[in-house]
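Risk register update: the risk of archive-format incompatibility is retired. Evidence:
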Amino acid sequence: MPLLYAPVAFEAHCAIPLPLACGSNSPVKRDANSRTNTPVRRRTVIAISLIVTLVMAGCDRFSSVSADPAKQAKLAGVLAREQALKAELQKVSVGQAAHCPPGYIAEADGSGNASGKLVPLSRKDMVEKLERATVLVLAPAAKGIASGSGFFISPQHIITNRHVVESSTDGRVLVGNRPLQRMRRGTVVAVTNNSNPGSPDFALIRLDDGQAPGVLDINTEPTKLSDVTAAGYPGLVMRGDANYVRLVRDGDLAAGSGIDLSTTRGTIQSLQTSATGTPIIVHTANIYQGNSGGPLVDACGRVVGVNTFIAVDEKQAGRVAYAIHAQPLATFAEHAGTAAKVDSRPCE
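Archived output:
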């Protein structure tokens, strides 16, 4: 049963925690990730209701109040309480909506709850997160261009497989995705000892200019049967993308802004240890040559593994997808001088 890497080479004719998001002008925005019944919003709604009530009470029959000292004193008390409620409301909202334009409200990102557990991302949020953080990696090769995938773990650093970039003799590579708007230059600054299947197979790329549109945290405690998503730029899929063809065939770096990320879903089938002692993940998400170095993420968008190789058995017409566990990835990043953020809270 042959083992195959998941990068692909082509002949070329030429060669941070995110801030709270602002919602719409509507007073309350409901979606799968919003929490309209949070303590802050409850206090906000209650305070607004009380203010409206008190103001209405003070305005009711105002002409008769102006001539009655007792009613004037009562009105003064009402206005004083109104000011106190306004001050309390300001304290509740300060630091949460101050960065939002007038008329907008701050919304939680839906990534956690009071129990400390993470909330699974919606499909839309998952795609947006992966599109910001996952990149196409191109390296010069003896014949054309070697192509693989990678992902940001910090604003300047990208993780990929060593075998994706080891054909670059000077460590120079190109990386890009839609949010980066064009292919950008990067430099390989650290690699593992080898890229043999079943061994730690990592490389760290530093972005030479610009910074990450998004980064991915790491979960070092994945569980069997949990849902996973593989993201990357497999050659078999990308060959149908006109922008990808323009990039690798014509050397049009601007075409990198139009390349569409490929994503597939599956489950963790097995948590194994390779012959070299490396923890690996067997999963059912489809990966192909070109997925190498791309992230395998859980339902909350955290990296649980790095897609690295596949095994194909022609007699049984079967194929198995392997990702290197996130634990050796975290160790590699730390030894390379940059730390990936580890978040192993439950995702429920």
